[in-house]
Amino acid sequence: MQGRWTPPKAWLEAFEAASDEELVRLLERRPDLLLPAPSDMAELAARSLGEASAGLFYDTAERPTRQVLELLCLDPGGVPDPGARLGATAEDIAPVLEHLRQCRMILVHPDGTVTPNPALQEVIPLPFGLGPRAEHLFATRTNTQLMAVATRLGLSTAGAKPALVKRLVAALAEPGRVERLRLDAPGQSGALLDQAATHPQIRLVSGVEPHLRRGGPAAWCIERGLLVQVDWSTVVMPREVGVALRPAAAGSQFDPSPPAVLAHPVDREQVDQSAGEAALHLVQDVEAVAERWSGAPVNLLQSGGLGIREVRRLAKALERSDADTSRIVELAAEAGLVGVDESGAVMPTPAYDEWRRLPTAGRWVRLADAWQRMIGSLHQVGAHGDDGKPVPPLLGWRPSALGLMRRILLLSAVADAGPGMAADPAGVAARAEWLRPALWQDSPAAAWVERTLGEAALLGVAVGGVLSTFGTALTESDFPRAEELLARVAPPLAERVILQADLTATVAGEPPASLRDELDLLAAVESRGQATVWRFSEASVRRGYEAGRSAAEIIDFLERHAAHGVPQPLRYMIEDVGRRFGRLRLGSAGCYVVCEEPALLAEVLRVKKVAALGLRSLAPTVAITARSPEAVLEALRAAGYLPALEGADGAVALQRTPAHRVRDGGPGDEFDGLAGLAEALLAGGLDPDLDDDEAEAIDGLLGDLELLGGIAGLPTGLAQLLADASSAGAGDPPVGEELRDLVSRLRSAPPRSQAPPSRGGSPGARQGGATLPFPQPELFDGRPTTIVKDQRAMPDLLMAAYQAGWAVRMSYVNTKGMAGEFFAEILGVGRGKVRLRYLSDRHGGGELAIYRIEWVRVATEAEEEALGW
User: Which of 249, 339, 433, 609 is the most exposed place for a label (fewest CB within 10 A)?
Assistant: First the structure.
């Protein structure tokens, strides 16, 4: 077995030669190197050269930093003047190079040559979008194919395959030769080369073989090594050819400073007024949705999500679009105000009752903060999915940290325009793409600017691309300030009610919760806004009597809060309903009807509208029916009577629609528990005495880093590092003076051997399943020769191959039950999974479940040589 891996000598010497202040700055700029704290200088150097840490640095780097790193990856042997290759002045490139040097991402040699961190070869396999190296592509070709290419290029065909590959690579690395070949190319072949120079991978619909048989445009290029076939329908341009045909492959224009965001001034008071109205409207609509489901919960569809019919009913009630209504529902769930119980019914949570007692500004802060921290994107809800149908709310999609990181970055870019300035969306997108290019590789920032500002407008965080004052405070996490600023434009607290003869009640401002609750009981809301209007009716007043109120209590309540007394029409209606309410009482017999006035009961028995009830008289004051009390109550009310339900004690039974709430233990609570485990895991603070369910959940998190990173809002690479650190028992990383103390300890610590990283120098896999803690013990003393079929022994053999850099051959059964054998390079081993890259006749790689492996063995040295390993 190979010896323990140690950092390259030049890199280790650079670490040892660095001053304490330089090392402190390195650890401040790359804090992932502290998880867990390294034990000596060699371990710190090894981590800095690891694929996971280097990948995290690259993913979070600004555009000029990435341009320099990608340029260096084109020629890892060293670039003497990166600035000249990028078309940058020495003044512009110097700060970037110094930053990279201090972060130990480059090494500047005495002759001025700059070499990249070795791990970047794995992190940036295709710099500037160019294809793979020619040596890697030619390694998959046969000797006969390579000799044919050499003959076309006028090269010698003598020697073994390695010498032939080396000769071809050197020839294609000559820009002049490649340019001459391009000029000599026939028309369609030349056009194909021009296309591949920009997009190196080209898929031929008809397949590659027909081109070769008929001498098609691709055949001329393949015969000269300008394109290489990688599968039956795909050809790829080697990197060296792409560099020659695209001299500006060193990327887009080098710009050392972020683009300025163009903006124009706006009336900030008007912005706050408009944003305040949107914020208050949102709070009122969330409350209306929750109150609607409090009285009558709805069920989710069997396929998941809220049905479109319910969404449209809500949209009609809220006077909103279907899309905005869906997003309001999703936001209410994100804020924990509504949830789904174990039966799939949607209703408010206990947190809703606490939220409802807050002032309006406080309620908005809770909603806006939930949006700001939302893992995912609100605009996805209500938008049309792949099937052309709107994505329903409460679907419970898989969390993704990308939406969170994009939202934070875009809001920051909008804020950079300055207070009271309307930011140009194109400028915001350009700035965001400069600051974090990795976030926009699969989706342009311009589309996300529009979506994010649309979400912000729905919440009142921004209007017309301008952050409101309270929206700015929210993005700065100054919640008390945000609440205070919104309260200035929100309706003032008002305890006086204007009662009018048309049976309406108006509160010009925000009523206290107790006043609002009582008015909601006695009247129906007609409109909301700066003032709320309720309307009294016989039906609404009846709710008060059914809830146990008397006429005197209702009138006394109104008199205490009325600004100008209780109008006579309203007083008469309350007293009239009170006189009529309960004159008829019913209960179950099926159901009986009792009336102290024989004449009234006789009248009821003669009314045609109630004939269908089948009432029959038992006595002058008693009648019975087989129908339920609810059916009798509804029919008598429809006939114009005001009956009351009677309890078992003969008194009027109090009636009020029960407020439904999600009980603890529903699906939402299960996810909250998972999130809590993730947060504890990443903080390194888990209780060692875990029950089986918690242990199983943690294994699931460690085996699914996208979920772990999504819950915590972290890039996958950082989630991997933190998971490894937690497994190794890491605590909180040191800061300030603690860093200086750590550096001193590293300098004085005796060297300690390191476990070898994966290719590219990674102490932990950058993506895929979780790896075992770093470092690892020796597993084998030499190259194993046995075939391992025991599932329990496979992880040890795979880890040994991973550490020693051996190729393996295995038999794997796919999900369709078909077995296949192949050679592979092991890139990482985790809990029940192995991450690998295919060798021989397969391309690519992936993450496989160990339990599906039938057998595995280490490849012999002869097999590795045949594979070009």
Answer: 609
Over residues 779-827, the pLDDT tens digits come to 455 788 888 888 778 888 888 888 788 899 998 877 666 778 888 988 8
Angstrom distance (rounded) from CA 827 to CA 811: 17
Residue 162, both tokens:
């390695």
How many CB atoms neighbour CB 173 within 10 A?
18
- What are residue 321's phi and psi, to 5 degrees? -75, 160
Burial of 213 (0-12, 13-18, 19+ CB in 10 A): exposed
| CA dihedral of 671, 672, 673, 677, whole degrees rounded to 10 | 100
DSSP state letter for 562: B
Output the CA–CA distances (angstroms, integers) from residue 88 to 207, 250, 251, 640, 761, in the order listed: 42, 11, 12, 87, 30
Give CA angle at 372 (370, 378), nearest 5°: 85
- List beta partners, residue 504: 535
- Residue found under tokens 């569809």: 301
User: What's the rounded Cα separation, in Å, for the pair 133 and 76?
Assistant: 12
Quote the radius of gyration of the chain (alpha carbons, Å): 36
Q: Which helix (H) or strand (E) holds 182?
A: helix 175-184
Residues in the chain: 869
- Which tokens belong to 638? 């429809």
- Matching residue, tokens 């990173």: 709
Q: Could you count the other beta carbons within 10 Å of the beta carbon of residue 177? A: 16
Of the CA atoms within 13 Å of residue 649, those in its CB half-sphere come to 4
Helices (H), 467-562: 469-475, 479-489, 513-522, 538-546, 551-561
- Which helix (H) or strand (E) covers residue 108, if one does? strand 106-108
First vs last C-alpha separation in the chain: 16
Sheet with 201-203: list strands edge to edge. 201-203, 234-236, 228-231
Q: Which two tokens stand for residue 822?
A: 């192949």
DSSP 714-754: --HHHHHHHHHHHHTT--PPP-THHHHHHHHHHHHSPP--B
- Taking alpha carbons only, the member of 471, 472, 425, 469 closest to residue 450 is 425
> Per-residue pLDDT tens for 531-573?
889 999 988 889 888 888 888 888 899 989 888 888 999 899 9
Q: Pairing between strand 228-231 and 234-236?
A: antiparallel
Q: Are 277 and 493 in contact (CB under 8 A)?
A: no
Give 176: exposed, middle or buried? Use CB within 10 Å, 0-12, 13-18, 19+. Answer: exposed
- Measured CA to CA, the distance from residue 235 to residue 229 in angstroms comes to 4
Biggest CA–CA distance in the chain, Å, is 122
